[in-house]
Amino acid sequence: MDPSPPPSRTTGFANLFKVLWLTSIAALGIGLVAVLFEKLENWGDLSVGAMSGTKELFGLQATGAWTWILPAVTVIVAMPLIIWLQKRFFPGTEGTGIPQAIAAIKIGTSPARGLMLSVRIAIGKILLLAIALLTGITVGREGPSVHVGACFMHLCTKWCRVSPWLMERGLILAGGAAGIAAAFNTPIAGTIFCFEEIGRLFDRKSVPMIMRTVALACIVGVVFLGDYHFYGNENIGIALPLAWNADQSLGEWIRSLGPWLAVPIVGFAGGALGGGFGRGVVEASYRIGPWLQKRPALTGLLLGLGLAAVGIASGGSSYGGGHSQAEAMLLEASKTGTPSAVWSDPISKAAASFIALISMIPGGLFDPSLTVGAGLGQVTYPVFTDWLAPGIDLPALMLLFMAAYFAGVVQSPITVAAILFEMTGAYGMILPLFLTSMFAALVAERLCTPSIYEALALDFLKRNGLKPAIGTGTEKIDQPS
After folding, report:
1. Are both 310 and 210 inside the same structural domain?
2. What are phi and psi for residue 338, nearest 5 degrees?
3. Residue 135, class by beta-carbon neighbours within 10 Å (0-12 exposed, 13-18 middle, 19+ buried)?
């Protein structure tokens, strides 16, 4: 008798139901992790504020010289501790986590995916990011959210049979999209990001899975955190003037368009700065990688000393991911129209983010990059409103710089434009944000090719002796220059 054919991976309503409820549980888990990260970031702001003497935690608040000693000592200790734990117990958790999600798609349905997607890696990512957030290291939480989300969705394949396209890329895309969406309450931007950056192509078959996963993860966030805009509601009404009113002459209308001059200028400037930052991170990561392998404790200590030096020099403004700082700047700008930042603020935040990224500890770059952009908008505002783009409002200029610098770093212009208007509700800024992000990405592409996530994904594969799988659509990619 001929042997029975192997069972199909997609046969039967029972298996379909199993796929639906397992992936739904994973999506809810992604939402819960995003809520946890948000709480950890808030607790980190409180702990750093208490050590810096600006806030109270359990009735405690540092004074005198302790306000700069305590935060500095904390990051000096935390950095080598995280690196040691990572090397000893949690290899595969390096960096933001987005490169690992990209790398997992590149190698196809290979057992080697266990090097980047597993229960151990998800646990390590959560634990190590918690230490970084609570101690004031300059990291965001979106990358780890993506990585944990991809791990959760990939783990569903251990207990159910899924369609080939879901196995190859759909589940990873869905987990990554849900991670971004739940981290910032931005379902549209999360969905765009998974296609624009993680997958690098539009996967129509996976759309229902992605949308369901994103929706469930965001629902969890809204239930626990409320229906909120990431940067508050104060700047919902800002916009750049464009419409030609009937009571305007042609000359009056042309003069009213002065603020639009900021779009290409900010786009090119922010793109150059962001692209240069991305290139610097990639190049430095290649060089510091061997040192992290050979002497992790010493390298971590030196990087911690660097973070402490930046923190002391900046008066503490470099500590933390930056969400509360950017939100406060936007709130103050909407109320007073007056800048509150100084040049050292964006410079120190960029420097601290640079050190954190090249250390390859778990942590993202979204929050720090957006905070740098907000600071650049603040410090350049007098020049723009008086000379380069007459009459532009401060919040509008800040959003343009946030988009330009961020798009320069990540080179995902559609995601950047979408995430900023979802974060602020400033729908009148959609067109300026799209154009600014486009200009910035074009400039950054000349400075950092491939993009920061792509380059780090390729480096991760190289360090682990892996190559992109033929037929995944990712094998014909420029190698890092």
Report:
1. no
2. -115, 130
3. buried
